[in-house]
Amino acid sequence: xxxxxxxxxxxxxxxxxxxxxxxxxxxxxxxxxxxxxxxxxxxxxxxxxxxxxxxxxxxxxxxxxxxxxxxxxxxxxxxxxxxxxxxxxxxxxxxxxxxxxxxxxxxxxxxxxxxxxxxxxxxxxxxxxxxxxxxxxxxxxxxxxxxxxxxxxxxxxxxxxxxxxxxxxxxxxxxxxxxxxxxxxxxxxxxxxxxxxxxxxxxxxxxxxxxxxxxxxxxxxxxxxxxxxxxxxxxxxxxxxxxxxxxxxxxxxxxxxxxxxxxxxxxxxxxxxxxxxxxxxxxxxxxxxxxxxxxxxxxxxxxxxxxxxxxxxxxxxxxxxxxxxxxxxxxxxxxxxxxxxxxxxxxxxxxxxxxxxxx
Length: 359
Fold this sequence. Notes:
Blueprint: E1 7-11, H1 25-31, E2 35-41, E3 47-58, E4 61-65, E5 71-72, H2 79-95, E6 100-101, E7 118-128, H3 133-139, H4 142-153, E8 157-160, H5 165-178, H6 186-196, E9 200-207, E10 210-218, E11 224-225, E12 228-231, H7 239-253, E13 258-260, H8 273-282, E14 287-297, H9 300-314, H10 318-323, H11 331-339, H12 351-354
């Protein structure tokens, strides 16, 4: 084995709050019945990293989805070693008869990707919560501070508790729908939230008795993740900003180390919705962490047909969008449609895989 080589083997982990909540068994089994962890072992036999995964089944297609990026143990994994490990991860799942590695959830920003993967630049914004609250406040853009002050003056109240879970689901679902995106079903959402148990907070911003915005935030001591948010059709200006600020304050007081805004596009088109989301997030004063999001074919026929189906019925996944490869598929669309029944696939099977962030 070469010095930079890291092989991938199945491992069990002793999860603790110092690791991402998305590495925990309680989370993994809340989103999939098939899950596990791969460990990266170097030439000396030392375990250098772990990578949690889940398997999603759609008809006869088995898809691997990572819920967090490679977790380095002891901070000693360099990029070459991680690439070697990811190459071995792909080999492992190919041997295990998985069909495709689909894009990871948007909180998972990899530093590198396997040799045969299709990758695109991606990033996330992270706030260091070890800073004093005064510094965190000063780091906010002046416009964010102003709208937060105004929301407080107008009487916006922020509440947190599981009693708001149904409202949060409706708000997130309807917000996705307004952007022509699908969202997981209620039962899947409740399975995830129930699985997270004490490691999730639900916040709502209320003005004059009406909910303006909400946030669903899984967490451990390692990080709090703003995975889902929603608003009413015409929210009061500043309500969502105040909600985020109060969530940041809450997790800092709880001793959480980081607040992760869970994914941003790199250099989105000016004036686009994605550009607006970046502006909203970056005005909280976070650090931009850049890396990659990727996918990789394992079974040639099933992965090609399924990827084409996603492009045809969803316009492509996030990797396709970021690589700007959305073109007319012409005759290839017909081939994909003809092949889908042979694989036990329907057009609707492709919809919910990429439309939500975690299910």
